Amino acid sequence: MLIGELAERAGTSARTLRYYEEQGLVRPKRDANGYRQYDDAELRVVHEIRSLLAAGFGLDDIKPFVACLRAGNESGHVCPDSVVVLRRKLAEVDGYLEQLTAVRQQLHAQLTQAEESPCRKQT
């Protein structure tokens, strides 16, 4: 398939696909006339890239997942390098959750204090 068809099937743009190619994530074959040709395996790779980007991964983080797929694995997250990235991302998310929990507790305490304040107007 040509770049336009891949873009349509993957729900992205040809420009984005060319960017992924520049980053070494997508590998088209070239026709004699220089046109990019993609097979269904590249569609799968693009879906994996888009899914990981949506989950908050950066392009550098995605490279091990793509390599895992290219190695013939059914999923991009089963290889050791991908597991390292998953562990790091999970630790990052856990850190965000701890920060958000602390902010939530602080806001809750301030709201409780404000509601109990004699300065509060009754409505």
From TrEMBL:
Keywords: DNA-binding, Transcription, Transcription regulation
Record-annotated HTH merR-type domain positions: 1-68
CDD domains assigned: HTH_MerR-like_sg3
GO molecular-function terms, A-Z: DNA binding; DNA-binding transcription factor activity
Pfam families, sorted: MerR_1
Source species, domain of life: Bacteria
InterPro entries on file: DNA-bd_dom_put_sf, MerR-type_HTH_dom, MerR_fam
SUPFAM superfamilies: Putative DNA-binding domain
Keyword Membrane belongs to the record: no
PANTHER family referenced in this protein's UniProt entry, alphabetically: HEAVY METAL-DEPENDENT TRANSCRIPTIONAL REGULATOR HI_0293-RELATED (PTHR30204:SF94), REDOX-CYCLING DRUG-SENSING TRANSCRIPTIONAL ACTIVATOR SOXR (PTHR30204)
Protein name, per record: MerR family transcriptional regulator
Species of origin: Paractinoplanes rishiriensis
Source taxonomy: Bacteria, Bacillati, Actinomycetota, Actinomycetes, Micromonosporales
